[in-house]
Amino acid sequence: MLLVGLTGSIGMGKSKSAELFEAEGLPVYDADASVHALYEKGGAAVALLSDFFPEAIKDGAVDRTILGQLVLNDSEKLQKLESIVHPLAGQMQKEFLELQEASGKQAVVLDIPLLLEKNAEGLVDVVVVVSTTPEVQKKRVLERPGMTEEKFLSILSKQMPDSEKREKADFVVDSTISEADAQRQIRDIIKKLDSFPARALAIRKE
User: What is the DSSP-derived secondary structure letter of residue 101?
Assistant: First the structure.
């Protein structure tokens, strides 16, 4: 089973591209959505995080805004957070992959925002980067509720430059023109996936 790593900086159109891959029949694992599930009421991370970040627990769930403020500029707290959440998220991804492999899927998409920032491209067989122009990116992000230019620039500073991501990509989806155009590009990518050897899943099982 081929593992397709889908990534891209904020505002590039990655989430919509994930939907388009799914519309073409490829199952998608959403790393962000998995973490959200861990933080929800009854989620596996809530009780564990309440021991170290009690002020971030509200009504039986993790308040992501408060948690983010607690770990901001505190590397020790951030490491603690990651040591709790990453294994749980990793287990969810493992279960997703096992289910898809058992059902006979030939390829799946792993939607991982920080795939390249974490140097994790070796854990997938194919890297797809979603991109657009800086002008379109900025316009999209600043239209989000609660977003400011200062916050946008802060997020960008923590992400790998788009030009570097493009260089590391096997394929680039340009989301600038339209959803239909992006879907055409994604269909073309899917047609070319057969030329890539499926190795990453075997590596993960070793």
Answer: H
Dump strand ranges (E) for the chain. 2-7, 28-30, 57-58, 61-62, 107-111, 126-131, 171-174
Q: Which of 121, 111, 117, 118 is nearest to 173 (CA)?
A: 111
Domain 1-27+107-200 has CATH 3.40.50.300: yes
Q: Looking at residues 127-146, what average pLDDT do you find? A: 96
- The reported pTM is 0.88
The fold adopted by the segment(s) 32-104 is Rossmann fold (3.40.50)
d(CA 8, CA 172): 9
pLDDT of 199:
87
Separation CA 49–CA 35 (nearest Å): 13
Q: Which residues contact 95 (CB under 8 A, 6 or more apart)?
A: none
Which of 114, 136, 141 has the alpha carbon at shortest distance from 127? 114
Grouping H, G, I as helix, E, B as strand and the rest as coil, residue 83 is: helix
